[in-house]
TrEMBL record, chain A:
High-level lineage: Bacteria, Bacillati, Actinomycetota, Actinomycetes, Pseudonocardiales
Family annotation (PROSITE patterns): ABC_TM1
Name under which the protein is recorded: Carbohydrate ABC transporter membrane protein 2 (CUT1 family)
InterPro entries: BP-dep_ABC_trans_perm, MetI-like, MetI-like_sf
Subcellular location: Cell membrane
GO annotation, biological process: transmembrane transport
Transmembrane segments: 14-35, 74-98, 110-133, 145-165, 186-211, 246-267
GO cellular component, one term: plasma membrane
A Pfam short name: BPD_transp_1
Database matches in Gene3D superfamilies: MetI-like
Residue ranges annotated for the ABC transmembrane type-1 domain, each copy included: 74-267
UniProt source species: Saccharothrix carnea
Automatic annotation (TrEMBL), chain B:
Entry keywords, A to Z: Signal, Transport
Domain of life: Bacteria
Pfam hit, one: SBP_bac_1
Keyword Signal listed: yes
Protein name as annotated: Carbohydrate ABC transporter substrate-binding protein (CUT1 family)
Family: Belongs to the bacterial solute-binding protein 1 family.
InterPro entries linked: Bact_solute-bd_prot1, SBP
CDD domains to which the protein is assigned, alphabetical: PBP2_TMBP (cd14750)
Automatic annotation (TrEMBL), chain C:
Sorted UniProt keywords: Cell membrane, Membrane, Transmembrane, Transmembrane helix, Transport
Residue intervals passing through the bilayer: 20-39, 92-112, 124-144, 170-192, 213-235, 274-297
Location of the protein in the cell: Cell membrane
Protein name: Carbohydrate ABC transporter membrane protein 1 (CUT1 family)
Organism of origin: Saccharothrix carnea
Pfam families: BPD_transp_1 (PF00528)
Main location: membrane
Length: 281, 429, 310
């Protein structure tokens, strides 16, 4: 028994490692090129060598040069994306719970309506939205970026969470309710922890989508102290005329990507550990 | 109870939204001031512009702000790409937003912005016609009325490898035939070098290069009265020069993907003998930090033509005042300040962008720093504007469509031009 | 089961009210940001802006009601050619990118799920393409695919990727799959994580091969998550805009999508026709989603009803 088990796992291990390698290569090779471009000197920006030679931090320092206010932009992005994520989860979880667990008329129509809102080409919503936000005085505010990001993220969040909640056996909740939990408590203590992977994934996807949102942030905000990181990147310019600051843009790309990945990693362990600890496992 | 209030609040919000919808599109004519009226109001203004490449714009704004404490100017930086800049300005005009007061417009946008009443007419004395370059002033006018003040001009130059031409004992070419001949002579010793490139990717740069080719062959895209005349033999000769250039390898195949920057990199890598480019390349190609292989080895000449010197397409930027902005009197003063001689001089020194005041081109001190100024002045003075059209976007797309089809061999040049003529007749009628 | 029967009957009153309370925030937000602009766009699509000039050269203001003219104009003459080309590109991009993303995404999820030691690093790497801002990644790919770029240097040929032709389509597909396969991977991984381990134990005891386990156990159990992922990818791919726009350029026949046509019309100040294009795209997306849900049973909500009926 143990022998066959070991035999089965060896090729499997090799396969897994090969798969790992391929995936890493596929995901990271273009990003590697981005990082390499970021660490070249601006003067040899367009070399094709595999390593930056000589290694240079010029592009990085250019990103954080005082006039640009990139630090402030990162903070704005954090506020917008963070708030969007929290609100999306709160609103999305309650809507998903209703769709997954409650029985009411027009449920399918409601679900269809929610997803229908992500069927219209986003760029065509821009001008009416600008008119609306201008009229209600939302220009240069965080909410002018948060609310649209929220609405772009909600349909996916609701549908995805609904799918997850539905996979949780209803008997668990019923058992908890028999034990004296209210419906809300049963949901919070039983379903949420079990659905943690789904919730966490929804959070990651929402956060990244909001973090990368560009056209709304560009159109609704004209005060540079309120701009987000993606907008700041689009405003980088070279020193002369058409000179495009490719290296600086790539450096900024690395700067906005890497912390995101690191933070997600850290959070992921904490959150999943925390949620499952409180669960009924 | 709680549910009902939430729901009714929701419907209320939607109701408001729908009301706003009907107001927004029905209330036309309410927001805009009549063009030609007095420019009134003093106070804070905003200045929407593309790139502040050197930080000099901010420096000039700071200078203005320190002497005008009650009329502060705030720069709103728009994205780096010209299309995105126009999109932002058009969007704000559509919703009649007062977010932007002063607009930094590309010269080809003047007609569109003026005809749609998105910018206001300026007093004729805003610009002293005697001191400014005449072609630049023309780009700021629509139907003979001034809607903007020319701040930057631009003209194409022929960058050439002086070292290689000198070695072959040649002068910079004045005609396309001389250019091809010079290239063949140089190729005897430098077989790998590409002869010529401009901007041939399908974007605004292609319109610029196509217009130049047509004008330099003695043709016109539109005549003096604005009628399209692009199906002439001269226009065909111009377009054919580019088409055969690609066919015979005088222009490298990959140049079809070139915008300004791709071409500049090729020139700086020593891959090109001749390159049609804007003045900004001068400083970058002359850098000795290793980024340019051709530093000290190149010079500029006026663009060549079919039977003699060619003529450039006019570029540049003008400042206008949004019809929906507040404090237009301040805006006008700021524009005058920005186009004044000291401001333009400091701009030239900081950014090497071509000024619009004629006197700066003849200034010995400036020429010492920017040796190409006399050539540039010549280029701008003989430059031809792109068609001034209210629907310029459609016009330039039609031109790009035709030129790209001819250059890639999708259509013979005469068919492409005939189709273009028909399109333009429809657009410019 | 009386409890079930009771619940089914009482469903409309108590549960209905609770459902309304739980769903209303979603609808308020969606109504404000999507609903209102959508209604505005629909209204716009039956109007046409004036393009005529008055005697002094000003555009005559005001739009006039033109009924379905904006729609019929799309299917006539040159616009029809452009429309069907864009329609074809949109469909082609959607079918190919989503298919590739599903295969690669599921593979990613499986590898991530089985990798124990490196899981953290692998998951972080997979996040990278999805986390790079679209604008920056489009620039990156443009640089990779330019004439002297690294793509050509690797294959040792000079292919002009950004010119018209199959190679432009290929570049767009490659860049899009790179960016969004992780999205599918993440959602599927989450689906894998909630499959209880004992299901596999049982299968292993029964002697099922890994391949069989995948088809018989894994796939059916991640189906809900996978279908949601695919459905939203389809919706997104049908509206593809940024990537071909930045990577290849506007007005390039080979890669022009319906969203790009709508945008292009709007930037030429033809707001009515632009809104009509957007509406047609909306209908196309809706029909696709409907067919998808019917065919593949991505019936996330309906199944709950079934179970309740049982």
């Amino acid at each position: 028994m143990t022998a066959t088990h070991a035999k089965a796992t060896l090729p499997r291990k090799v396969l897994t490692f090969a798969g790992l390698g391929l995936i890493l290569l596929y995901c990271l090779a273009p990003f590697y090129w981005m990082a390499v471009s970021a660490f070249r000197r601006p003067s040899d920006q367009f070399e094709l060598t595999a390593l930056p030679a000589p290694f240079s931090l010029d592009n990085l320092t250019a990103v954080f040069s005082p006039g640009v206010g990139f630090g402030r932009s990162l903070l704005n992005s954090l506020v917008v994306a963070g708030t969007t994520t929290v609100l999306t989860l709160i609103i999305g979880v309650s809507a998903a719970y209703a769709l997954a667990r409650l029985h009411f008329r027009f449920k399918n129509a409601v679900a269809a309506l929610i997803i229908a809102t992500s069927m219209f080409p986003g760029i065509s919503l821009l001008v009416p939205l600008l008119a609306l936000f201008t009229d209600i005085g939302w220009i240069n505010t965080y909410q002018s970026m948060i609310v649209p990001s929220l609405s772009f993220a909600l349909p996916l969040a609701v549908w995805n969470l609904t799918a997850f909640f539905r996979q949780m056996p209803e008997e668990l909740e019923q058992a908890a309710m028999i034990d004296g939990c209210t419906r809300g408590q049963a949901f919070r203590k039983v379903i949420l922890p079990l659905a943690a992977p789904g919730i966490f994934t929804t959070a990651i996807i929402t956060f990244i989508a909001a973090w990368n949102e560009f056209i709304i942030a560009l159109s609704m905000v004209n005060d540079s102290t309120m701009q987000t990181a993606t907008v700041a990147i689009s405003r980088f310019t070279g020193a002369y005329g058409f000179d495009q600051p490719f290296g600086t843009q790539m450096a900024a790309g690395v700067i906005v990507t890497v912390p995101l990945v690191v933070v997600v990693l850290l959070f992921q362990r904490r959150i999943i550990a925390g949620l499952t600890a409180g669960g009924v496992k | 109870m709680g549910v009902r209030t939430t729901v009714s609040r929701a419907t209320a919000a939607l109701g408001v939204a729908v009301l706003l919808a009907s107001c927004g599109s029905g209330g036309d004519g309410g927001g805009g001031e009549q063009p030609g009226g007095a420019l009134e109001g003093r106070g804070e203004v905003t200045f929407a512009t593309g790139k502040d490449t050197s930080g000099n714009m901010q420096k000039l704004v700071d200078e203005w702000n320190s002497s005008h404490p009650n009329e502060q100017v705030r720069i709103i930086e728009l994205p780096e790409s010209a299309d995105a800049q126009r999109q932002q300005m058009v969007q704000n005009a559509q919703v009649k937003s007062d977010a932007y007061t002063i607009l930094n417009l590309d010269v080809v946008w003047t007609a569109e912005f003026a005809a749609n009443r998105w910018v206001v007419e300026l007093p004729a004395d805003t610009v002293d016609a005697g001191k400014f370059l005449e072609p630049a002033v023309k780009t700021a006018k629509y139907r003979d009325k001034l809607y903007a003040a020319p701040v930057y001009s631009d003209g194409g130059l022929l960058y050439y490898r002086k070292d290689l031409l000198d070695a072959a004992g040649l002068q910079p070419p004045k005609t396309w035939a001389e250019l091809t001949a010079a290239c063949q002579a140089v190729k005897a010793t430098q077989p790998a070098i590409g002869c010529y490139a401009g901007q041939f990717e399908k974007y605004e740069g292609l319109t610029v290069n196509f217009d130049e080719a047509v004008h330099s062959a003695g043709g016109d895209v539109v005549d003096a009265s604005g009628k399209p005349v692009v199906d002439s033999p001269e226009a065909k000769a111009g377009l054919d020069a580019l088409v055969t250039g690609f066919q015979q390898g005088v222009i490298p195949q990959k140049a079809i993907t070139y915008k300004e920057e791709e071409g500049r990199r090729a020139f700086q890598a020593g891959e090109l003998l001749f390159h049609r480019q804007w003045p900004y390349q001068w400083n970058l190609a002359g850098k000795t930090d290793g980024s340019s292989q051709v530093a000290g080895k190149f010079d500029v000449a006026p663009l060549p033509g079919l039977n003699g010197p060619g003529s450039s397409t006019l570029g540049g930027h003008n400042f206008a005042i949004s019809a929906f902005g507040k404090n237009k009197a301040t805006a006008l003063d700021f524009i005058k300040f920005f186009t004044s001689e000291p401001s333009q001089r400091s701009n030239l020194l900081a950014t090497s962008q071509a000024p619009t005041l004629a006197s700066l081109y003849d200034d010995a001190e400036l020429i010492k720093q920017f040796p190409y100024l006399p050539t540039l002045k010549e280029s701008i003075l003989s430059a031809k504007p792109r068609p001034q059209a209210v629907r310029y976007g459609d016009v330039t797309q039609a031109i790009q469509e035709a030129a790209y089809a001819a250059l890639t061999g999708a259509k013979p040049s005469d068919v492409a031009l005939k189709d273009l003529q028909a399109k333009l007749q429809e657009l410019l009628k | 089961m009386t409890a079930v029967a009771r619940r089914a009957r009482g469903a409309t009153s108590g549960a209905g009210r609770l459902a309304a309370a739980l769903l209303s925030p979603t609808f308020v937000v969606l109504g404000l940001v999507v609903g209102y602009p959508l209604v505005a766009a629909l209204r716009e699509s039956v109007f046409r802006e004036g393009t005529d000039l008055d005697e002094s050269g000003f555009v005559v203001e005001g739009s006039r009601f033109v009924g379905v003219d904006n729609y019929t104009a799309i299917f006539a003459g040159e616009s029809a050619v452009r429309f069907w080309n864009a329609f074809g590109n949109t469909t082609l991009f959607t079918v190919i990118t989503v298919a590739l993303e599903v295969v690669i995404g599921v593979a990613m999820a499986l590898v991530m799920h089985h990798a124990i030691r490196w899981r953290g690093i692998v998951r972080a790497s997979i996040l990278v393409p999805w986390a790079v801002p679209t604008a920056v990644s489009a620039l990156l790919w443009r640089w990779i695919f330019q004439a002297d770029g690294v793509a050509n240097s690797i294959i040792g040929q000079q292919i002009l990727w950004t010119t018209e032709g199959w190679q432009a389509k290929f570049a767009v597909i490659l860049a899009d799959v790179w960016k969004t396969a992780p999205f599918v991977g993440l959602l599927v991984l989450a689906g894998l994580q909630i499959i209880p381990n004992d299901v596999y134990e049982a299968a292993r005891v029964d002697g099922a091969s890994p391949w069989r386990q995948f088809w018989r156990i894994t796939l059916p159990l991640v189906k809900p998550a996978l279908l949601v992922a695919v459905l939203f990818r389809v919706l997104d791919a049908l509206r593809m805009f940024d990537l071909p726009f930045v990577l290849i350029g506007s007005r390039k026949e080979s890669v022009e999508t319906l969203s790009m046509v709508a945008f292009d019309e709007a930037s030429s100040l033809r707001f009515g026709p632009a809104a009509a294009y957007a509406t047609i795209l909306f209908v196309y997306v809706a029909v696709t989603a409907l067919v998808f849900v019917r065919l593949l049973g991505a019936d996330v909500i309906g199944a709950a009803r079934e179970r309740a009926r049982k």
